[in-house]
Design a protein that fits this description.
Blueprint: H1 2-17, H2 21-30, E1 39-42, H3 46-50, E2 54-57, H4 64-73, E3 78-82, H5 83-88, E4 105-111, E5 114-119, H6 133-140, H7 150-162, H8 166-179, H9 184-203
Parallel strand pairs: 1-2, 1-3
Antiparallel strand pairs: 3-5, 4-5
Length: 204
Protein backbone atom coordinates (compact mmCIF):
# COMPACT_ATOMS: atom_id res chain seq x y z
CA UNK A 1 0.00 0.00 0.00
CA UNK A 2 2.82 2.40 0.89
CA UNK A 3 4.54 1.60 -2.41
CA UNK A 4 1.30 2.28 -4.25
CA UNK A 5 0.92 5.68 -2.58
CA UNK A 6 4.53 6.54 -3.37
CA UNK A 7 4.06 5.61 -7.03
CA UNK A 8 0.93 7.78 -7.16
CA UNK A 9 2.79 10.75 -5.67
CA UNK A 10 5.64 10.30 -8.16
CA UNK A 11 3.16 10.08 -11.03
CA UNK A 12 1.51 13.31 -9.87
CA UNK A 13 4.89 15.07 -9.68
CA UNK A 14 5.78 13.82 -13.15
CA UNK A 15 2.41 15.00 -14.51
CA UNK A 16 2.93 18.41 -12.93
CA UNK A 17 6.28 18.75 -14.67
CA UNK A 18 4.65 17.97 -18.02
CA UNK A 19 2.21 20.88 -17.83
CA UNK A 20 2.47 23.35 -20.72
CA UNK A 21 4.18 26.50 -19.49
CA UNK A 22 1.48 28.79 -20.83
CA UNK A 23 -1.12 26.92 -18.77
CA UNK A 24 1.00 27.35 -15.66
CA UNK A 25 0.77 31.11 -16.25
CA UNK A 26 -2.97 30.93 -16.94
CA UNK A 27 -3.59 28.90 -13.80
CA UNK A 28 -1.65 31.38 -11.67
CA UNK A 29 -3.67 34.28 -13.07
CA UNK A 30 -7.14 32.73 -12.66
CA UNK A 31 -6.68 30.77 -9.43
CA UNK A 32 -8.29 33.47 -7.29
CA UNK A 33 -11.29 33.69 -9.64
CA UNK A 34 -12.15 29.99 -9.83
CA UNK A 35 -13.71 28.08 -6.98
CA UNK A 36 -11.65 25.06 -5.95
CA UNK A 37 -13.20 21.70 -6.95
CA UNK A 38 -15.34 23.38 -9.63
CA UNK A 39 -15.97 21.51 -12.86
CA UNK A 40 -14.09 22.82 -15.92
CA UNK A 41 -14.79 21.64 -19.46
CA UNK A 42 -11.65 21.43 -21.60
CA UNK A 43 -10.28 19.01 -24.18
CA UNK A 44 -7.38 18.05 -21.90
CA UNK A 45 -7.19 17.90 -18.08
CA UNK A 46 -4.17 20.15 -17.56
CA UNK A 47 -5.85 23.39 -16.46
CA UNK A 48 -8.46 21.70 -14.21
CA UNK A 49 -5.64 19.72 -12.59
CA UNK A 50 -3.57 22.85 -11.97
CA UNK A 51 -6.58 24.56 -10.36
CA UNK A 52 -7.53 21.53 -8.24
CA UNK A 53 -10.81 21.30 -10.16
CA UNK A 54 -12.73 18.46 -11.75
CA UNK A 55 -12.18 17.87 -15.46
CA UNK A 56 -15.13 17.59 -17.87
CA UNK A 57 -14.19 16.48 -21.38
CA UNK A 58 -14.90 19.00 -24.16
CA UNK A 59 -16.98 16.85 -26.54
CA UNK A 60 -16.27 16.65 -30.24
CA UNK A 61 -19.52 18.30 -31.34
CA UNK A 62 -20.51 20.48 -34.30
CA UNK A 63 -22.17 23.54 -32.79
CA UNK A 64 -23.37 25.39 -29.72
CA UNK A 65 -26.68 23.53 -29.62
CA UNK A 66 -24.84 20.21 -29.33
CA UNK A 67 -22.40 21.67 -26.80
CA UNK A 68 -25.35 22.81 -24.70
CA UNK A 69 -26.69 19.27 -24.75
CA UNK A 70 -23.29 18.09 -23.55
CA UNK A 71 -23.22 20.64 -20.74
CA UNK A 72 -26.72 19.60 -19.73
CA UNK A 73 -25.74 15.94 -19.49
CA UNK A 74 -22.35 16.61 -17.91
CA UNK A 75 -22.52 20.00 -16.20
CA UNK A 76 -19.50 22.26 -15.86
CA UNK A 77 -19.23 25.69 -14.26
CA UNK A 78 -16.47 26.76 -16.67
CA UNK A 79 -15.41 26.13 -20.25
CA UNK A 80 -11.80 26.60 -21.34
CA UNK A 81 -11.00 27.14 -25.01
CA UNK A 82 -7.26 27.22 -25.65
CA UNK A 83 -4.59 26.03 -28.06
CA UNK A 84 -5.63 22.38 -28.03
CA UNK A 85 -9.30 23.21 -28.48
CA UNK A 86 -8.51 25.69 -31.25
CA UNK A 87 -6.87 22.96 -33.31
CA UNK A 88 -9.11 20.02 -32.46
CA UNK A 89 -12.44 21.77 -31.81
CA UNK A 90 -12.34 24.22 -34.75
CA UNK A 91 -16.10 24.75 -34.87
CA UNK A 92 -15.80 26.89 -31.75
CA UNK A 93 -13.04 29.26 -32.80
CA UNK A 94 -15.43 32.14 -32.33
CA UNK A 95 -14.87 31.61 -28.59
CA UNK A 96 -11.41 33.15 -29.09
CA UNK A 97 -12.79 36.20 -30.88
CA UNK A 98 -16.51 36.03 -30.19
CA UNK A 99 -18.68 37.52 -32.94
CA UNK A 100 -21.60 37.12 -30.56
CA UNK A 101 -22.00 37.99 -26.92
CA UNK A 102 -23.20 34.57 -25.88
CA UNK A 103 -25.94 34.79 -23.29
CA UNK A 104 -24.78 33.26 -20.03
CA UNK A 105 -21.09 33.11 -21.01
CA UNK A 106 -18.95 35.39 -18.84
CA UNK A 107 -15.28 35.87 -19.68
CA UNK A 108 -13.25 35.06 -16.57
CA UNK A 109 -9.86 35.31 -18.24
CA UNK A 110 -8.61 36.16 -21.73
CA UNK A 111 -5.07 35.99 -23.08
CA UNK A 112 -3.40 35.05 -26.39
CA UNK A 113 -3.40 31.38 -25.37
CA UNK A 114 -7.06 30.94 -24.62
CA UNK A 115 -10.32 31.96 -23.00
CA UNK A 116 -11.87 30.80 -19.74
CA UNK A 117 -15.63 31.28 -19.53
CA UNK A 118 -18.02 30.96 -16.60
CA UNK A 119 -21.27 29.37 -17.79
CA UNK A 120 -24.47 30.77 -16.30
CA UNK A 121 -27.97 29.33 -16.19
CA UNK A 122 -29.17 31.82 -18.82
CA UNK A 123 -27.26 29.93 -21.52
CA UNK A 124 -29.51 26.89 -21.18
CA UNK A 125 -32.69 28.80 -22.02
CA UNK A 126 -31.30 31.44 -24.39
CA UNK A 127 -31.72 31.49 -28.14
CA UNK A 128 -28.56 30.34 -29.90
CA UNK A 129 -27.38 32.81 -32.58
CA UNK A 130 -27.67 31.80 -36.21
CA UNK A 131 -24.50 30.82 -37.97
CA UNK A 132 -22.95 33.46 -40.23
CA UNK A 133 -20.88 32.06 -43.15
CA UNK A 134 -18.74 35.18 -43.49
CA UNK A 135 -17.98 35.31 -39.79
CA UNK A 136 -17.25 31.60 -39.81
CA UNK A 137 -14.72 32.06 -42.60
CA UNK A 138 -13.02 34.90 -40.75
CA UNK A 139 -12.93 32.89 -37.53
CA UNK A 140 -11.40 29.90 -39.27
CA UNK A 141 -8.58 32.06 -40.60
CA UNK A 142 -7.37 33.00 -37.13
CA UNK A 143 -4.03 31.68 -35.91
CA UNK A 144 -3.31 29.39 -32.98
CA UNK A 145 -0.49 29.32 -30.47
CA UNK A 146 0.99 32.27 -28.64
CA UNK A 147 0.88 34.53 -31.70
CA UNK A 148 -2.10 36.84 -31.38
CA UNK A 149 -4.18 36.79 -34.59
CA UNK A 150 -4.02 40.57 -34.93
CA UNK A 151 -4.70 40.96 -38.65
CA UNK A 152 -7.61 38.54 -38.61
CA UNK A 153 -9.04 40.27 -35.55
CA UNK A 154 -8.79 43.62 -37.35
CA UNK A 155 -10.70 42.21 -40.33
CA UNK A 156 -13.36 40.69 -38.11
CA UNK A 157 -13.85 43.94 -36.17
CA UNK A 158 -14.14 45.92 -39.42
CA UNK A 159 -16.68 43.45 -40.80
CA UNK A 160 -18.77 43.66 -37.63
CA UNK A 161 -18.72 47.47 -37.79
CA UNK A 162 -19.71 47.52 -41.47
CA UNK A 163 -22.64 45.18 -40.82
CA UNK A 164 -23.91 47.24 -37.88
CA UNK A 165 -23.04 44.76 -35.14
CA UNK A 166 -21.55 47.41 -32.90
CA UNK A 167 -21.86 45.50 -29.62
CA UNK A 168 -19.75 42.68 -31.03
CA UNK A 169 -17.36 45.08 -32.79
CA UNK A 170 -16.66 46.83 -29.49
CA UNK A 171 -15.72 43.49 -27.97
CA UNK A 172 -13.23 42.93 -30.79
CA UNK A 173 -11.71 46.40 -30.55
CA UNK A 174 -11.40 46.12 -26.77
CA UNK A 175 -9.45 42.90 -27.19
CA UNK A 176 -7.34 44.35 -29.99
CA UNK A 177 -6.31 47.30 -27.83
CA UNK A 178 -4.73 44.90 -25.35
CA UNK A 179 -2.22 43.74 -27.95
CA UNK A 180 -1.90 46.41 -30.63
CA UNK A 181 -2.39 50.10 -31.40
CA UNK A 182 -5.54 50.86 -33.36
CA UNK A 183 -5.19 52.52 -36.74
CA UNK A 184 -6.94 55.88 -37.39
CA UNK A 185 -9.68 54.03 -39.29
CA UNK A 186 -10.14 51.63 -36.38
CA UNK A 187 -10.27 54.54 -33.93
CA UNK A 188 -13.03 56.00 -36.12
CA UNK A 189 -14.90 52.69 -36.20
CA UNK A 190 -14.58 52.42 -32.43
CA UNK A 191 -16.06 55.89 -31.96
CA UNK A 192 -18.90 55.11 -34.37
CA UNK A 193 -19.72 51.92 -32.48
CA UNK A 194 -19.54 53.62 -29.09
CA UNK A 195 -22.04 56.26 -30.25
CA UNK A 196 -24.35 53.60 -31.71
CA UNK A 197 -24.29 51.53 -28.53
CA UNK A 198 -24.92 54.58 -26.34
CA UNK A 199 -27.83 55.63 -28.54
CA UNK A 200 -29.28 52.13 -28.39
CA UNK A 201 -29.03 52.04 -24.61
CA UNK A 202 -30.60 55.49 -24.23
CA UNK A 203 -33.64 54.30 -26.23
CA UNK A 204 -34.12 51.16 -24.15
Amino acid sequence: MVIGLLVNVLNQISYQHRQPRYLLRTAAEVRSQVETTSRIMARKPHLPYLLNCHWVYFPDVENLAQLRVGLTKTPAAYVYYGRSEFVLRPNFRFLCFPPYRLTGWEVVHSDPDGELYRIGKAFFSAEIPNDDPVLRRLENETLSGSQVPIEEARRLAAFLTQTGRCDQALSEYERLQKFAKLSPEEEHNLEVCLKAVRAKRSRS
